[in-house]
Amino acid sequence: MIVAFSVSPAGGDQDGGVSEAVARAIRVVRESGLPNSTNAMFTNIEGEWDEVMDVVKRAVEAAGEGSPRVSLVLKADIRPGYDGQLAAKVERVERRLDGE
Question: How far is CA 69 from CA 10, 12, 49, 59, 98, in A?
Fold first, then answer.
């Protein structure tokens, strides 16, 4: 399965920024060893249901340190029997864009 998620604590720093909290969450994802990527809006992670959801839970907890409330947006592509799709899905689209 692939999960795209975004997590943010309520509040933020003096300027309303949440980059420190988001960095804590992304650190959890990267240290998990699961395939992942991060862009301006979401972090994507691929693996089996239990391991992915455990990482998301720990990332939410990390982002929420010191905050009374955390927002989580999550979208999942659940396709049993497939792995390596984090990169493969993008590669298939890129090939089509290149006219293959």
Answer: 5, 11, 25, 14, 44
Rounded Cα–Cα distance for residues 19 and 90 (Å): 27
Q: pLDDT, tens digit, for every residue of 25-81?
A: 999 999 999 999 999 999 999 999 999 999 999 999 999 998 889 999 999 999 999
Number of domains making up the chain: 1
Amino acid, res. 7: V
Q: Which domain holds residue 27?
A: 2-97
Task: List, as one string, the DSSP characters of 40-91.
Answer: SS-EEEES-HHHHHHHHHHHHHHHTTT-S-EEEEEEEE--TT--SHHHHHHH
The pTM (predicted TM-score) of the whole model is 0.88
The CATH number linked to 7 is 3.30.70.930
